[in-house]
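Hey, sorry to bother you again with one of my protein questions. A protein chain has come my way and I'm curious about its shape. I'm sending you its amino acid sequence along with the backbone structure tokens. I owe you a coffee for this, so here goes:
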Amino acid sequence: MKKLFILVSLISLSVSLAKAQTWFVQLSTPKGSMILMLYDETPKHRDNFLKGIKSGLFKDAEFNRVIKDFVSQGGELDETILDREKLHPGVPLQRVDAEIKPNLFHKKGALGQGRNDNPEKSSYLDQIYLVQGKVRTDAELDIIASKSGHQFTPAQREVYKTIGGTPKLDGDYTIFGEVVQGMDVAEAINAVQTNKHDLPVTPIKFTLRILDKKEAKKILKR
């Protein structure tokens, strides 16, 4: 009965969360398209992403680091960003302030923003990732919690035990959206063949398009 209550609560939370959001983005790839819902709870990351799409920051972007059952990363690589910044040491670093929320976690299908190892946990402007992960057990979650000090709520545990995800990233990276349509496309991308550098053997470029209000309303009605 307790497990059923948690599942019902999760479904209710997902429905109310979806209705509350304002912005949706279509991510199109050779594998198909998916719809991303951006969280209004993380306005800095939401607005940075929308601004980047409008300005062409993600032009010719591709999934360049795909790790099976972990994440599919797209946009600019760490090395490219950091090497460019080294050439201009006097220029202030461009980052998005961390917006890590306890209720926004690394469940399967979550949309996160990449970063380097900085103490503020601020994010790069143009590096995103989709969580794939895998189903976890309570024992595995207990081990992760003991190592990181991060505690999972009963609802989060139920998600990780049924849907899956990458719980060890919780508390360290900002989650600012999720896949609401086309999860099969995200799964196909995460399953592609890669080389020793985790780069897909066949390039997977993607384009981003912000849905208009009429299109967004259709998503919310489903």
Summary: Residues 2-20 form the longest helix (19 residues). The first strand starts at residue 23 and ends at 29.
